[in-house]
Automatic annotation (TrEMBL):
It comes from the Bacteria. PROSITE patterns: HTH_ARAC_FAMILY_1, HTH_ARAC_FAMILY_2. This is AraC family transcriptional regulator. Pfam families: HTH_18. The keyword Zinc-finger does not apply. Residues 190-288 form the HTH araC/xylS-type domain. Keywords: DNA-binding, Transcription, Transcription regulation. The keyword Transcription applies.
Length: 290
């Protein structure tokens, strides 16, 4: 005997509605209509594999794997079709009114709160990496289990559900903040390289680079070495030597001028570095070039 489709309202209030949908009725291939109210945020946790979502108002289709989720804002009432060819279609929807989130975050209190609300409204919490929906964490799973199994009613239920929703939002913000931090870290070597490419002719020191870029000295050394397989000072020296070799052919430039133009305060240091790199002194290379 096939299990009938069940759509149960777990909790509802003036600001929040929590719905669990669980279907094993293969006659309709596990189809459901996903409803979003006007000016609302919708947390959709996908609890079964290979769920397709067809958004009617924009004609887009998405496919989700089990344990993925999205946080979506809609300004107008809308609906979408969910379906799967698997045995069951199961998801949990938490719908929260905009004004509740507005009062909770209080975007007028500080810049961080304002930015979080803007990201939520702009639907920045749908994809974690490129086109990939975020994965539920173990802690998120535990909270959903608590929400579904909570048995009290009245004010205790209201306080409990709101507390769990706030915790879910915190976990989501933290997850995306970690993603942004990881992306920022991946850009560090490129930021350093760009700065060095533009300033290698100066008497650069790691301390100065750190101060100007606002990046820890240790992080500068480590990230650059990992990304480019050479130390930052070796890279600076390489750029200086390549420039020096090009300038050597200009007989109108004194060796001292070339040294200064390449970031060396003392000619002796420049000559030593040049000979180490090319096997001959700047003077000899200049003589052999003509």
């Amino acid at each position: 005997m096939k299990k009938e489709s069940t759509k149960g309202v777990i909790f509802t209030s003036d600001d929040i509605e929590i719905v669990m949908y669980d279907s094993a009725d293969m006659r309709d291939f596990g189809k459901a209509t996903f409803l979003e109210g006007k000016s609302s945020f919708n947390l959709l946790f996908l609890l079964s594999p290979d769920i397709h979502l067809n958004v009617n108002d924009c004609g887009r289709q998405f496919k989700f794997q089990k344990n993925q989720y999205i946080l979506h804002y809609t300004s107008e009432e809308s609906q979408a079709e969910l379906w799967t060819n698997q045995e069951t279609l199961k998801y949990l929807q938490i719908q929260i009114k905009y004004q509740y989130i507005f009062n909770l975050i209080d975007p007028e209190s500080n810049r961080e709160s304002e930015e979080i609300l803007k990201q939520m409204v702009d639907n920045q919490f749908i994809f974690l990496y490129k086109k990939t929906p975020p994965e539920m964490t173990v802690e998120m799973h535990m909270i959903l289990t608590e929400i579904v199994s909570y048995y009290r009613k009245g004010v205790m239920q209201k306080l409990f559900m709101e507390a769990k929703i706030i915790k879910l939002l915190i976990l989501i913000f933290e997850q995306f903040n970690e993603k942004n931090t990881a992306e920022d870290l991946s850009k560090i070597p490129l930021i350093i390289k760009k700065f060095v490419d533009e300033n290698f002719h100066r008497n650069l020191k790691i301390e100065e680079i750190s101060k100007i870029l606002g990046i820890n000295e240790t992080k500068i050394r480590k990230e650059f070495k990992i990304h480019y397989q050479k130390t930052i000072m070796d890279y600076i020296s390489e750029l200086r030597m390549l420039k020096a070799k090009k300038l050597i052919i200009n007989k109108d430039l004194m060796i001292k001028e070339i040294a200064i133009d390449c970031g060396y305060e003392y000619v002796q240091n420049f000559t030593r570095a040049f000979k180490k790199k090319f096997g001959v002194s700047p003077e000899k290379l200049r003589t052999s070039s003509f």
